Amino acid sequence: MITSLLIANRGEIACRIIRSCRRLGVRAVAVFSEADRDAQHVRAADAAIFIGEAAPRASYLSIEALIGAAKAAGVEAVHPGYGFLSENADFAEACAAAGLIFIGPSPQAIRLMGSKSAAKALMAKAGVPVIPGWQGEAQDDASLAAAAGALGFPLMIKAVAGGGGRGMREVLDPGAFSEALAACRREALSAFGDDKVLLERLVARPRHIEVQVFGDSHGAMVHLFERDCSLQRRHQKLVEEAPASGLLAHERQAMAAAACAAARAVDYVGAGTVEFIRDGAGQFYFMEMNTRLQVEHPVTELITGLDLVEWQIRVASGEKLPLAQQAITCTGHAFEFRLCAEDPERGFLPSSGRFGLFEVPPQDEHVRLDSGFGAGDVLPPNYDSMFAKLIVQDATRESALVRARGALAACHISGPSTNIGFLRRLADAPEFSKGGYDTGLLERSGEALAKAAMPAPAAALAAMIELLREAAGDEAQASPWARHDSWRLGPPAARPFSFAAHGTEVTVHATALRDGGWDLASEGQHWQGRGRLLDASHAEIQLDRTMFAVAFAHDDTSCQVFFEGLNVRFEKLPRLRWRDDNAASQGSLLAPMPGRIMAHFAKVGDAVEAGAVLVIMEAMKMEHHLRSPHAGTLSALIGDVGDQVEQGRELARVTPLAD
After folding, report:
1. E strands in 349-435
2. β-bridge mates for residue 535, sequence order
3. 448: helix, coil or strand?
4. In this model, does residue 415 exceed pLDDT 70?
5. Are residues 511 and 649 in the same domain?
């Protein structure tokens, strides 16, 4: 068996591979970029090697740097993880040329399945159903527009070399085709270095169902059941479950057989996933094959009890598959929730920064958290926004979903904005709870789920945390003049605590009571409050007759409160405030996060309409369109295409039209 390997990846998947290596006694060597010097995967590995700057092309996408690191470490093999170079045939060939075992399929299989057009042709020949579409050689605008017209709308534009939801656009009518094509090409070129596209008929209300397959070099091929990956936003998966709900036995068998046939057609060795689209009538079509381990592989591990990374290492070592098909069983039901640093209330804008509180539920045979981060770690803006995966398993779908709700409620994570509250609301959504949903669920209901309500006691709890922290800090101060608890000669005065959360402002007026408690008043509601700090991040607070167990994260500008499965981040508002409307009046467009300028859509001096796209940025693997705030004249463009910019940097300015 392989005794040492280099992990050509980072974050959660690197930590995941390290755990399997330890169980097998395999030496694991990590690599890291400038942004990951202090990352958990670097600390957890047996050794770690620096490979370059934070930009992926200078580090995790540099074949030369990774092969050099493998040679320097003296390892036998390279595990690519997922993302980055995991489906890059040139990288697999470079490993072989350097005398290294590539833990994955052959370069030929990667190339065949990496081209969506070639893969579809091959699958059709192998008898696997494919979606009607067009995958011709002509790539000019006129030819593609003509092909789209012949195919009919609605349709899907897909990058030929795409994957992971990137380089894909739905087009509902001919008028939107040109803009969608340009965006698809631009994203595909940035992500895959290839802007070729194909066209497919858009399947109405589809489900995205995929089958895990595994092959060895001795001719064996098995499947490890299917997963439902239909809960997606912008073609990026958010929640996966296994097995898929609502399928009939013959449907499962047909999909599994088609997946194995697809893998055999390319003599596949290792872990792979064959992805299908299923329409409302139960017909399924081949979509693509991912020639790597998938992000969602843990749900398969929890229903089978198998370690897929261990299987990868054993197969790459030349061993036979550990189990035959009849010995692989499915037990219970599992969900995976992707925890991402993004703000649902701001259009899922990616976030980055240092994690403060990082509390997760205890892990056991039912609950697992895969992450490459913890309290105090920094999530850099250079890579994907996913920082952890919460995976739960139980005997039935219903009991697993109940367990998932509790586990999500127990996640108390502060620092970057996260989607945990959104996922908690999604877990309660009736359409998701009943199963059998399609990929349009979040498009139909995502906006409502993204808007978090502010429960009435939340602001009162935040005010109590402020008061309790002040009291704990002032115990040693004997002089009443140094206290901040409203003490004065005469009747007690009410202290205002003003906060902003979820786009609204709220003020809590707190008045000290003689018994040491507080009278709290806000928005016409009153509570009698008292409590105690348990430590720097936890408190017991009683409002009237209700006792709350509260976790919190506190700094000079905010107070984040976690209670009863809810999470509210309050920005503290100073008592004396003024507004700076200069930027708004000038029509400045500011970078919403660190990122790279991808394109300009107007020139200085052009007349622009309100809402017109002026600048496109790329950050954390997503495109962000910055639009004109009003009609006017584009008076400034700051920065060039390709420039890396910091959050808050002014990128454009629009002078409003004179009245």
Report:
1. 349-350, 353-354, 358-359, 367-371, 378-379, 386-394, 412-413
2. 538
3. helix
4. yes
5. no
Q: State pTM to two decimals.
A: 0.84
Q: Which one-letter amino acid corresponds to residue 65?
A: A
Q: What is the rounded distance in angstroms from the CA atom of residue 643 to the CA atom of residue 521?
A: 50
Q: What is the pLDDT of residue 84?
A: 95
Task: Mark whether 217 and 183 lie in a shared domain.
Answer: no
Q: Of 166, 252, 292, 569, which one is the catalytic site residue?
A: 292
Residues 187 and 166 in one domain: yes
φ, ψ at 608 (rounded to 5°): -125, 150
Annotation marks residue 264 as catalytic: no
Q: Are residues 561 and 600 in the same domain?
A: no
Final residue belonging to a domain, choices 157, 172, 201: 201
Q: By mean pLDDT, which of 186-190, 406-410, 610-614, 650-654 is the weakest?
A: 186-190
- Does 110 map to a domain? no
Amino acid identity of residue 220, one-letter, is A
Cα(332)–Cα(1) distance, integer angstroms? 32
Q: Worst-scoring range by mean pLDDT, 89-98, 210-219, 560-569, 572-581?
A: 572-581
- Average pLDDT on 220-230 reads 98
Structure tokens at 659: 């009245």
CA 429 to CA 423: how far, in whole Å?
Answer: 10
Residue 586, domain extent: 582-656
Q: Quickly state the pLDDT bin for 452 (edges 50, 70, 90).
A: confident
Q: Which of 529, 550, 572 is the last residue of a domain?
A: 572
Residue 166 lies in a domain: yes
Q: Structural domain tally of the chain?
A: 5
Checking if the pLDDT of 91 tops 70, the result is: yes
pLDDT band at 581 (very low <50, low <70, confident <90, very high): very low
State the Cα–Cα distance between residues 289 and 422, nearest whole angstrom.
30
SS3 400: helix
Residue 557 lies in a domain: yes
Are 402 and 420 in the same domain?
A: yes
CATH classification at residue 374: 3.30.470.20
As a whole number, mean pLDDT of residues 583-596 equals 72
Say what the pLDDT of residue 481 is: 59
